[in-house]
């Protein structure tokens, strides 16, 4: 009805899980990476659990997962888990195209048939995955049968990898004492949360472009209001946006304002609950206090010594953290999975060349760090500090400093320098090659291992509570310890290289 009025080819805010309209926020990328990890580690034998509130995109992610299945993967998809144990076994066998004629109704016969299939798939080098959507609806006997399926194994590995998708009730269910055997077998957990305010705007614009829209009709305040009324839940965003477009069409409005959004939300959503305002004021005051503490906390950095033979490769030293940087005009190649595997295999696992490039970015002499290929780095100057451990990509981007990522592909290892990232891509350098790759591809070849450095004097650490508050505000592990990662975050305004914002 309104499509031609707004210049659209199709409805942009349908609630069907069409993968073409998928816009992956960082948390959705992480969630999909967990599912892909579950398939890639098909012999690991543990459960992978993905939970999230209604409408946050779990089913859409499962559809996207099906489009990205490796060629050697076979998957049984259970969409209706309200079945008893025998019916569930029959469904799994049917999904895997196992002949169960004459075996229906018999748990032993069905398990034997499934086990024979899994052994044959293992002999052929195939990975078999069971994905159960809405797993919180599994009856107790069916859930116990799912657990028992992990006992199908060889001497060296499990034959079936199981992915459980469900609402938050699934977390409460597996936490029951009687299900502790199952809970102990969950090797990866991820809880999908709603979109934040910025992600909401990105989500709406993405779907508008996919539907063929040119001029985005929603005012900034309208987008903000949609986020407030929906709580950042994608399905509710779709419902509100759809109704707001209908209201705009009925009123001959080419621009959707906050009033139209409120009118639309009032029609499709329950009345918003009235909340007391003072907790939000307290939270705002706390954030302001943390910012002030961080400014007072930073030490004075020691001027860095320029390297005699290495030239800097980054932005000016007085750049502020997370400020967008211009991307070099030279075209940057895009890297797919096969090319990345080939490059990693040809590079080698020694971190020394990557460290030399990182030192060059900091304008430090090559002998500022002693690198043990099998262990951590050892600075030779008091003002040079190493940071080594595991972190999420978002944490490293928040630190806004180049880092070295330990990549793995087909049994080979290599160190890559992180140069920057945007919502879809990451920019890396391995050796002399600088390239962009999809963040999902990066996450499938990187388990979080990183090393980095920063230059400056160590600030005097404040109290444990203040440290924890600062860590919470910056998305760091809130252990209350002013370790190297936290100190690096505090030194965000110090001179030195910063990350690029990768642009199209």
Question: How are the elements arranged and paired?
Answer:
Elements: H1 3-6, H2 26-40, E1 47-52, H3 58-67, E2 73-78, H4 85-95, H5 107-123, E3 127-132, H6 140-149, E4 160-166, H7 169-174, H8 180-183, E5 186-192, H9 197-210, H10 220-230, H11 234-250, H12 258-268, H13 278-297, E6 333-334, H14 337-347, H15 352-361, E7 369-371, E8 377-379, E9 384-390, H16 393-399, E10 403-409, E11 412-421, E12 425-430, E13 433-438, H17 439-444, E14 446-455, H18 464-474, H19 484-490
Helix pairs in contact: 2-3, 4-5, 4-6, 9-10, 10-11, 10-12, 11-12, 13-18
Quick synopsis:
The protein has 504 residues and is of the alpha/beta class. It has 19 helices and 14 strands.
Structure notes:
This protein is α/β, with parallel strands linked by helices and 504 residues long. The strands form three sheets. Strands 6-13-12-11-10-14-9 form a seven-stranded mixed beta sheet, with helices on both faces. It has a five-stranded parallel beta sheet with strand order 2-3-4-1-5, with helices on both faces. A hairpin with a 3-residue loop joins strand 11 and strand 12. The chain is globular and about 75 Å long.
Question: Which terms would index this structure?
Answer:
504 residues, alpha/beta, 17% strand
